[in-house]
Design a protein that fits this description.
By secondary structure, the chain is of the alpha/beta class. The chain contains 12 helices and 18 strands. Helix 9 links the parallel strand 14 and strand 15. The protein binds nicotinamide-adenine-dinucleotide and zinc ion. Zinc ion (ZN) binds next to helix 3.
Length: 342
């Protein structure tokens, strides 16, 4: 089969013929239809320090996908050829304390599809049935292909109650933009999103945010005054991984405010802990999605009118992967989709 492979320990990805994955008794074989390019894939492509110490070579990469079941192992129930599915990209151990308690998203031994084991940028993918998600009615395939990052957005956005609250989102990347749509759908009052990239801010405006703020030229205290807010933001969603974005957030939260941190900082940085202590803030780290409550929440929100499709800005055939990766890395795109079937 054709697949995008991290074939050499150097920048790049290579389209190669590789053997089809073999099906175990508990596995589902999926014909991949569409895949999304994630920031993680860009790190693997550019072969930064994180990728060098994490990614085995050679390996098929990619983890955001939608496809069709073609075959199931002899132990598998509940899936049949023709089912439209995506996969939870985190494989959990099933045996640690959290897994045994049903808190699988807190597993301490997570393995990542396309990170620690072969991925979805290929014509076929095999996953254990415990990681396969059956799509509900009315989920269009492009949106189904990005359920993984959409799930990051939902898990972060719903970490704290948002009904009637004022929300600050730092980072208008694809995940920040989807989170804005989610908190809007979930009944937030003001949804303020920040970035330093005008293309991203323009995309965010299409999601019906209250204000899309370029922090190079505008300051959050002024935005708060303009909106008639006098106590600060109730909920913060950090989705940039940028130190000054988090510092800005900490300085603009209401007393008792709650922050969910999804953005991954490239290195350690200091914050003013006085904001956390004296303003009695809660800070919670978020990784991945809840299995499978987040997947359920995504489905029912789409079925009840949430539309995240404007975040998808580019579509390419898999042969044009180089252009697709260039678009995703340019900072001018939202989500970039690769098509694997004709
Ligand atoms: P992205 O890199 O496309 O978006 C980040 C955005 O932050 C960019 O648009 C960038 O211009 C903006 N930014 C940079 N400096 C800023 C500043 N000072 N203030 C405001 N915005 C600023 O990333 P994404 O794919 O949308 O993902 C968002 C973040 O979440 C990334 O850090 C990513 O690594 C992380 N992530 C975490 C998980 C997890 O499970 N915790 C999963 C996926 C992604
Ligand atoms: Zn576990």
């Amino acid at each position: 089969m054709r697949a995008l492979v991290k074939a050499h320990a150097e920048p790049g990805l290579w389209l190669q013929d590789v053997p089809e994955p073999t099906l175990g008794i508990n596995d589902v074989l999926i014909k991949v239809d569409r895949t999304g390019i994630c920031g993680t894939d860009l790190h693997i492509h550019s072969w930064d320090k994180w990728a060098q110490k994490t990614i085995p070579v050679p390996m098929v990469v990619g983890h955001e996908f939608v496809g069709d079941v073609v075959e199931v192992g002899s132990n598998v129930t509940g899936f049949a050829p023709g089912d439209v599915v995506s996969g939870e990209g985190h494989l959990v151990c099933g045996r640690c304390r959290n897994c045994m308690a049903g808190r699988r998203h807190l597993c301490a031994h997570t393995q990542g599809v396309g990170v620690n084991r072969p991925g979805a940028f290929a014509e076929y993918l095999v996953l254990p049935m415990t990681n396969v998600w059956h799509h509900g009615h009315g989920i269009e395939r492009d949106v189904a292909a990005i359920f993984d990052p959409f799930g990051n957005a939902v898990h972060t956005a719903l970490a704290f109650p948002v009904l009637g609250e004022d929300i600050l989102i730092t980072g208008a990347g694809p995940i920040g933009i989807m989170a804005a749509a989610v908190v809007r759908h979930a009944g937030a009052r003001h949804v303020v999103i920040t970035d330093v990239n005008p293309h991203r801010l323009e995309l965010a405006r299409r999601m019906n945010v209250t204000r899309a703020v370029d922090v190079r030229t505008e300051r959050l205290p002024e935005v708060q005054r303009e909106l008639g807010m006098d106590e600060g933001f109730d909920v913060g969603l950090e989705m940039s991984g940028n130190a000054s974005a988090l510092r800005d957030m900490l300085a603009n939260m209401a007393h008792g405010g709650r922050i969910a941190l999804l953005g991954i900082p490239p290195e350690e940085f200091a914050i003013d802990w006085n904001h956390v202590v004296f303003n009695m803030l809660t800070i919670r780290g978020i990784y991945g999605r809840e299995m499978y409550e987040t997947w359920y929440a995504m489905t029912v929100m789409v079925q009840s009118g949430l539309d995240v499709s404007p975040v998808i800005t580019h579509r390419f055939g898999y042969e044009d992967h180089a252009e697709a990766f260039a678009a995703a890395a340019s900072g001018e795109a939202g989500k970039v989709i690769l098509h694997w079937s004709e």
